[in-house]
Design brief:
Elements (H helix, E strand, L loop, with lengths): L2 H12 L5 E12 L9 E17 L4 E6 L8 E4 L12 H13 L8 E7 L9 H17 L5 H16 L6 H7 L5 E6 L5 E5 L5 E7 L11 H15 L16 H8 L2 H25 L3 H17 L6 H12 L3 E7 L6 E7 L3 H16 L4 E5 L6 E2 L2
Parallel strand pairs: 3-5
Antiparallel strand pairs: 1-2, 1-12, 2-5, 2-6, 3-4, 6-7, 8-10, 8-11, 9-10
Helix pairs in contact: 2-3, 2-4, 3-4, 3-5, 4-5, 6-8, 7-8, 8-9, 10-11
Length: about 400
């Protein structure tokens, strides 16, 4: 997105110049799926697709907001005096949630803003467009109002917006991955303690290809909350026998005993995924440190199989896409990423074979599903920034 186009559009919509422009990335999770809320380790990275905004301060309490992605909705207006959730405010509720919790935390928001947004994250694809929007709004408020909000505080505030304001029972990974993004690094995050480290992600000769099923998935409407409640039920049973705070604290050698304690085949499958996926994250980071991309790719494949068989969050579209990627020449590994039930998968592919990979995978997907997938070659980027 060229800044000049963003600013031009702002001028057309609001009849004045914007003061500042901002960007916040989306994210992909390389490995460690559906374990952030189970106290596990995750390994996401910020990507160079994301959300842009142009902003200008107002002299009253009013916010006027426009999205180039939802032009048919026109300008949506709300006030600092009423930040309650309203269905008709659509995507703007994420912004309202950020403002509400900033004020509740004691931060000063002295006036409203005129805001124009543009996102090049495919909507509903599972690359965290909502967390990108939340972290972008935190960055806008921090810079324009001079707030002392740290990246970690912004991430936790964004999670609160999702959980308490929007009503999605999600974990901490998306906001942390975006708020703490660092170019050419992935983030190894312990979701139990929020301790993290940046791990160099050098895959010379290979690219991350994001593959979008083009089947929309709405997180709040999916079986996400159902999976989470299954895990919580299993945890409460296991805590009678094991000294654990979260499912990912369980040792792999204790899984056989855990099966008897849980005495519920479906809940046990969820536990098995959480425990083994956590181990795969540890093994994947070690593989990268040893520059062993072959092993890293195999772990991605194993992650997808576990998400398909034990956690049951893939579906025909994702399975078709990933199977086609596994069959393609030059693929190190592939798996679904995000919440599942549609959305995206990722593959690590030789640069020289990326073009034929896309053609081959798309051809098989089209034949099986009846419509095309979309493909994006991703670069690993930084967290939210003020552009001017």
């Amino acid at each position: 997105m060229e800044l000049s186009l963003l600013q031009q559009k702002f001028n057309i919509v609001f009849g004045k110049e914007s003061e500042s422009s901002f960007f916040a990335p989306g994210r992909v999770n390389l490995i460690g799926e559906h374990i952030d809320y189970n106290g596990g380790l995750v390994f996401p990275c910020a990507i160079t697709l994301g959300t842009y905004a142009a902003a200008s301060k107002r002299h009253d309490n009013k916010f006027r907001v426009f999205s180039m992605n939802f032009e048919n909705l026109g300008i949506i207006e709300f006030s600092l005096d009423d930040l309650t959730y309203q269905k008709e405010h659509n995507w703007c509720n994420y912004l309202k949630g950020v403002l509400k919790y900033l004020l509740e935390a004691g931060y000063k928001v002295p006036s409203g803003l005129d805001l124009l947004f543009f996102g090049n994250i495919p909507n509903g694809a599972g690359l965290s467009s909502s967390a990108s929007l939340e972290m972008l709004m935190c960055k806008i408020c921090t810079d324009l109002y001079g707030l002392s909000l740290s990246s970690t505080e912004a991430a936790l505030l964004g999670k609160k917006v999702e959980n308490e304001y929007i009503g999605v029972n999600s974990g901490i990974m998306d906001q942390f991955a975006i708020a703490l993004g660092k170019a050419n690094h992935a983030l190894l995050l312990d979701c139990n303690t929020t301790e993290y480290q940046h791990v160099p992600f050098e895959i010379e000769g290979y690219s991350i290809i994001i593959m979008n099923t083009n089947k929309r998935r709405e997180l709040a409407d999916s079986k996400y909350n159902e999976r989470r409640s299954e895990c919580e039920s299993a945890l409460s049973k296991l805590q009678n026998a094991f000294d654990i705070k979260a499912l990912c604290d369980l040792k792999e050698e204790d899984l056989t005993k855990a099966a008897d304690i849980i005495n519920h085949p479906i809940e046990f499958k969820r536990v098995k995924h959480a425990v083994t996926e956590n181990i795969r994250v540890i093994d994947a980071t070690k593989a990268l440190e040893n520059n062993d991309l072959f092993t890293f790719g195999k772990l991605l494949n194993a992650s997808h199989i576990s998400l398909k068989d034990d956690y049951e969050v893939t579906g025909k579209e994702l399975d078709t896409l990933v199977a086609a990627a596994w069959d393609a020449d030059g693929t190190l590994g592939a798996r679904m990423t995000g919440a599942g039930f549609g959305g995206c998968a990722i593959a690590i592919v030789e640069n020289q074979k990326a073009e034929t990979f896309i053609e081959s995978v798309n051809s098989k997907y089209l034949k099986e599903i009846g419509y095309e997938a979309s493909f994006y070659i991703a670069s690993i980027g930084n967290g939210p920034i003020q552009l001017n």
